[in-house]
Please model this.
Amino acid sequence: MPHWAKMRQTTLLVLLLIFIAAIVAFWVTQSSPTSNFTQSEQPPTALQKLHWHPSPTKVPPITFKGKDSEDISLNHFLGTPVLLNLWATWCAPCVAEMPALDQLQASLPEASLTIIALSLDREGLAEIEPFWKKTQLTSLKIYFDTTMGAGQTLSARGLPTTLLINREGQEVARIEGPAEWANPEVIRYFREITDRL
Model:
């Protein structure tokens, strides 16, 4: 076989291998649930502060209290996408967005997205229950951490801070500051992405 023919054959083989590698890389990327919606589904304007991580990160283990002061682990919610909102009654932006979070939870079944509004009030139920009644929150459940340890463990730089956690207990996105949770576009957005979390 002439030298030029061997060179041509080698070049074609290299190009074929590159093509195959590109197809495999594309397939792996598209088969990732997180990459599906981070690349093809941009958050609405009302969620413009939502920051998607390049890759999911394991959420450190945290425990907190429920309404009956029972200990609850975040791992209890594995298998369900979670929107974890860190807030406090002394935080004005937190208080302002709480009814919207309640409305978002009312619009989505907990099986598709569970919203955990985790209060960091030091007084616990003494502060939270009066606020719950005054604000008439009916879809959100009461959770609190009087030690404020969850905020430190989750590296919250301020309140409110909200983490989007997938079924495997990995943080896939975060938003620092308030958001328009009851905005129809936001509700539609979560309806579309939760089955891929």
Observations:
- The chain has six helices and eight strands.
